[in-house]
Structure formats: C-alpha cells, structure tokens
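[audit] Reproducing an earlier prediction to check determinism. Same input, same settings, fresh worker. If the tokens differ from the archived copy the diff job will pick it up downstream; this log only records the rerun itself.
[audit] input (365 residues):
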Amino acid sequence: MMRLKSVLSVVAFLLAAIVSARADDGFVREPLRILLPSDLGTLEALLVRPSAPGRYPLALLAHGSPRSAADRPAMTPLAMLPQALEFARRGWAAVIVMRRGYGKSDGGWAETYGDCANPNYTAAGTAGAADLKLAAEFLAHRPDIDPAHIIAVGVSAGGFATVALTADPPPGLVAAISFAGGRGSLEADHVCRPDRLADAFAAFGKRSRVPMLWVYAANDHFFAPALAQKLKAAFTAGGGSVDFVSAPAFSSDGHALFSPAGIAVWSGYVDAFLKLQNLTMRDEPLALPEHTLGVPTALGANGRLAFADYLISAPHKAFALAPDGSFGWRSGVATAAQAQAEALKSCGQHGKGCAVMFVDDAAAR
C-alpha cells in the first residue's frame, strides 16, 4: 500500500507541475520538486524546454559548489537559466538540479569529502551522482521527456558528479559533458591532495563507458591544465572515453567558462560534441527571447559593457545607477529583493544617489 501511495504521489506531482507551466516567449520554465527516497524530502529543480508540445531528450545540468559552506543555501537553479536556455533552444528539455544541501533542496549536504589531508573524493562524487541519477529516473516518467536520450552536463563539482554518473549511469544516458570538473579546491591554485582526486577519476574510469566531453580553460585557477591532464590520464587508463578540449584563457579565471559570458565559446564545443554523437536535435537553434531594455544614457563605455553582460545574465538580477554614471549590479541570486539590495550596495561604493533601474528583464517600478 505504501508503494502504491508513493507512485500515486509522483504521478499527481508530475501532472500538477505540467499544468502549472507557463510559456509566452517560446520556452517553458517550470519549477519542480524531485522526490527523494524515504522521508528525506525533495530536490529543487527548474525545467526549461521549448514550448511546442512533444517529447524532448533530457539534459541534466549540474551546478558547482561554492568554496564557503555558508553560500550553499543561497544557491538557486535560476543561476544556470541562460545555460539551460542554450540547450532548450537546441531541442532539449534542460533540467537544473540542485543536489542535496544546495539551495532549497532537502536531505542535508551529502558531498563532503572529509579532511583536506585525507579526502574521500570518490564518496563525494558518488553522492552527487546519486542525486543526478534520481532526477533522471524521476523525470523519465514525464510525457514530455524522451527517456531514451539523456545527456548530463556539469561544471566544477557538478562536472565531477557528472563523471561519477557515467560510472553508474541511469537508463538512457547516452553522453556527458564536464566543464572544469573536480573537487577539493579550497583557494586559488590549490587542491587538497590532487593524487587522491586522480585516484577518484581512475576509479570512475574503470566503470565508465559513456562518451564524454571535458573542457578545461588555460587559466583555470581551480584545476590547472597540468592537473586536468593527470585527471584525464587517470580516467582513460581504465577505459573511460574522453574528448578533451583545452580551451584558451577566459576572463580572469577560466573556471567560469561555462557561464552566460562564455556561451559564444563553450556552445561551439558542445555543438561539435553532440554532432559527433549524432545528438544534434535541430539544424538551427531556436531564437532566444528578445531583450527590450534600453541602455541608460548616463553609462560610460565600461558601464555599457557591464549592461550588455547584465542583459544575458541569470535572474534574479538588478542594475543600479547613480546620476554621475556610476553603477552596480548583481545576478543569479535567489530573490529579486536580494538582487536589488546588492546592486545598490555595489553602486554605492562608486557613486552617490544610486537607484535601481532594472529588475530582472524589466524596468524597476
């Protein structure tokens, strides 16, 4: 009887979520709660797909992990909305999954690797992969998902969890992508026991047979190019399959390549890999929602560049401006109120009389 109640709860939850979805710009953005086993609660998630009816292949998107534990509860799937839209416009249903202990997901943080001197990276990766596998199996029951075609895409700790997922894949996982995958970077250019990290990659490589794309930038200050090559060697030694891309330097830290600002770069790597795997779903990507905000005339050259970045950045976000052209902005936070407060604070460090001009993709009221 308990099993039947659980199944009926899942079905009811899925139907309610689908009915609640809304789309007015060509894409559905649907908040989800993914059921955890037993009484652990749910995982927070956001599904993004084209609004046209049909069954879409699934792209699981896995976030990174902040260096400070205090930042984990403030994380939001909205921070990866621009990346999800890039997969949606290519014909995928992209789901951003907040793993246990991140954002509003329940279950407690499961990805600890212990002390820096004696880390258990294999356990951390396995825990992260378990949440991704659970999400894939949960979403496979939806009528708008094609469960036979699933890819996993992760960045940093999420990339590491994605690598681990390929060693114990859910049904239908046909390819995976890791951007700057790894664990144990407590500060710039320092990783706790990199030899242990390589051991974890070796352990996953012995069981992984899913084709993967790995991307590391030349100026990654979490996992440097030399370490990335060692991780590749460890993973492939046991039979793991990797198409490795050494990307050129990006911004001040190439670890941020898989970001809205890096779309023009990383989307090309993704397209080439998906084509190689016969996973190109559309000849041409769907058009992105248009931005209708005008550039404030008070902004100088640097401000205009910043505003261009603001337009493509993730919600919730806000842009504040002072009469003298000083500005500040914040994006990818959990609430619009938080974005406004942080944008005002940033602007106030450079000018006086700052006011919030834009919230998300609309003029402030």
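[audit] rerun output stored. Observation attached for the diff report: Confidence is low (pLDDT under 50) at residues 1-22.
[audit] end
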